[in-house]
Amino acid sequence: MTCEEFVELVTAYLEGTLTPAQRAAFEEHLEVCPGCDTYLDQIRATIDVLGAVPPESLHGTARQRLLDAFSDWSAGSA
Amino acid sequence: MASPGRPDGEPRDRALVASLRAGDEQAFADLVDGWSGSMLRLARHHVATEAAAEEVVQDTWLAVLTGLDRFRGQASFRTWVYRILVNQAKTRGVRDRRTVPFASLAGGDEDGPTVDPSRFQGPEGPHPGGWRQFPQEWPEDVVLTQEVHEVVHRALDTLPPRQRVVVALRDLEGFEADEVSDLLEISAGNQRVLLHRGRSVVRAHLESYYTAAPVGSAGR
Ligand SMILES: [Zn+2]
Known about the structure:
Number of strands of chain B: 0
Helix content of chain A: over 70%
Distance between the termini of chain B: 38 Å
CATH topology of the largest domain in chain B: Arc Repressor Mutant, subunit A
Radius of gyration of chain B: 21 Å
Number of helices of chain B: 8
Strand content of chain A: under 5%
Radius of gyration of chain A: 23 Å
Shape of chain A: elongated
Largest interface: A-B, 47 and 59 residues
Oligomer: heterodimer
Structural class of chain B: mainly alpha
CATH superfamily of the largest domain in chain B: Winged helix-like DNA-binding domain superfamily/Winged helix DNA-binding domain
Number of strands of chain A: 0
Shape of chain B: elongated
Number of helices of chain A: 4
Number of domains of chain B: 2
CATH architecture of the largest domain in chain B: Orthogonal Bundle
Helix content of chain B: 55-70%
Order of helices and strands of chain B: HHHHHHHH
Bound molecules: zinc ion
């Protein structure tokens, strides 16, 4: 497996969808290649960073309208 | 793979639904704040304007409230909410005569290498297909500054729409692979390719950011 092939299998590896043979070749390459080891770490770091990004929400008035609707709804359904 | 019935999701969903029924406004506000961003991203695929997307999200939340008694816990509460969203968005898209099936947004978003081929040695090199230069390591403790969030937002903005929504659902929202394929009506393989491509682009943006900024510069 070359490095160029390795980088295209990173997601399948993390998702657990490689065949046993592919997985073995992937891990074998990982053992001997510091560059791909770094690359895989960076993909993991990227996933962590994405997971920590604060969500965008609705703007203030739309949000407030929903909260008002919720109050009405719970008053009505109580 | 998610197990049928999602045993660990159920009690949490039950508690959440119970607090909504009990009129817990904070619980509702947390849901709205937590999910509306990715709901907007998903809605944008079916409707023509930003205003329409916002209306779809608002209508979805209203439909969630009025339909709450019909939530049976067969899917997770989140999947149930997002399915309502997809239905609302499709209906709205048809009404606005903009029927853009998600699949038709494809085109050039699944082809080609995800890492610049010039980073690898050609056939003339000692190790064809090997790194010319190893990727430079990033700072040990990656601090999630406002600046980093902006880099990520800019990276997401550059993604083709299908990649953007898959990355948002998987990595921002933490949906499972099968939930995303289900919501977007795409195959598991397709979902994985879009995720792979999207993540690679975000990594490349972070790489430029981490390796270009001088060490110890402001904002780190
Ligand atoms: Zn390698």
